[in-house]
């Protein structure tokens, strides 16, 4: 079904039809993610269809561009094994597109995509590690990108090596205090990266706030009055659609009138339900076609209104609407709204000079329009930043907005924060620090004047500004540690490994308690033969992250030291474990070729949770079916157990810390150090799958 959708999208062998392709993708994505017969294998085409739907909504291909819907499909595809979806979702978290900016989650997703074999992500991950001064992993992932035939990485290999060398030399010359400053600067710059992206529709329902807004409006709030007026027009427009299955020409005209009035007054309240969006688009498209044909391009209020509705509805299709607005501005040169939309669109297209030209044209018509003044300041900031000019003009533009805007205008706090950013980007630290403190404080104070529907106040700049004002934080800042156990606990690969292991062991327990249930398992002979060494002496240590997750390889003359964090309930045809190394990275482990009569002893006495072992010449095996890496042991003597004194006693099943005092009340097997760990193990790692007495 997925392949048929691709052919239909391209018109190969069938009629080209993007809408039919969309339906086929939705049907493919609705299938079970696992193969209906061989459940251990993915259902081919499902994750690919989910990823394709994510791309469609991200780019606006035959659907309304909707980044939040793209996130939904990317997440589903990622959960079902898609490398490309993990890469795209990681990039969205990196830039804060439709999600809260989260560098930690972005890195986890990018690493997951790279582990799944995406050559482009390997290069991105290498560059990310380089920015964090983790030179070893930067070089490892860059080499893997080159070996995976990433042409760009191959072309720039020498340049990347020189950049690593340059940074290493810089680090070697820095004192410990200077390194703290460097780490602090890089930390702040990793938090803040200016992006020109459209705002994402909020989940907040302003219709529910109407009564409260009316009370504020009656007390004199101009902002609340505007929101109420916009809501009244929006509700009237929706009621027309809800009241009639098909609309007359007069009803369509009334719908266009009310929706356009809402867009003119305050567009943020016009949250069209997903199930109604298609019908809204059809009404607008019909009215636009009618105006074009019947009025023969003669200016009219209906034509102006429907053009505004069409442009606003399709705002995320930047290039299309930019071209459409050109004719709108020519036909209605006195309408500020077309200039406002054009200014915003060109900002998103990273053309601040063109955007500023349009905004200034609008201001000639209406000099005190708050929306135009705000966009002028934003575009000036981006323009001066791109041209390395001072920020004086941008700051003055922000100040003009503050003089005109009501105190409870939703952009007032943001303007103070953006002015603080201007000082950071355009002035020396000595000059900037006073103004940053002052403007941040004024922004916090301005939040107190905001209407309840805008609280708690959302601003991407706060996360950047707040820690900079904490001098104790700045003085004590250190590089973000790579080996952060708490961070690794939510790593998508770790969660996937543990969940899959528990699914397998859960079926084993089901077989134990249900005689009619049988788990059938097969295995293939290894591609490479593992040979052990007589001694640990002379072997070089290796960690899981240093082993290439895309290659079937025995790491001769190396030793991998790990802790067992998930145990086995069966030993046929192999013992299934989950192991964790010193970096808190984890992987599946399969042990073969032991005496069958030893199986019960091995899983109940030796290979137990918290036990530590060395694996000589570890073999990272890529599965023949699922293509996923597993540490495979075929030579039983290659495992050297550490002494019992090294074992982690009463290990928490979630965070893996020792001396966990609480036991699961149902199975009495799993131990936890806190209620939080138990909840997370149930929710994230699916403890329910194995919550049975052995």
Radius of gyration using CA atoms only: 30 Å
Query: Which fold name corresponds to the CATH topology of the domain at 2-191?
Result: Serine Threonine Protein Phosphatase 5, Tetratricopeptide repeat
CATH superfamily of the domain at 2-191: Tetratricopeptide repeat domain
Overall geometry? globular
Give the percentage of residues in beta strands.
5-15%
Provide mean pLDDT, rounded. 88
CATH class of the domain at 2-191: Mainly Alpha
Low-confidence blocks of residues: 196-201, 471-482
Task: Give the class from helix and strand content and strand pairing.
Answer: alpha+beta
Total count of strands: 11
Major sheet summary line = 9 strands, mixed
Percent of residues in helical segments?
55-70%
Number of helical elements = 29
CATH architecture of the domain at 2-191: Alpha Horseshoe
Q: N- to C-terminal separation?
A: 42 Å
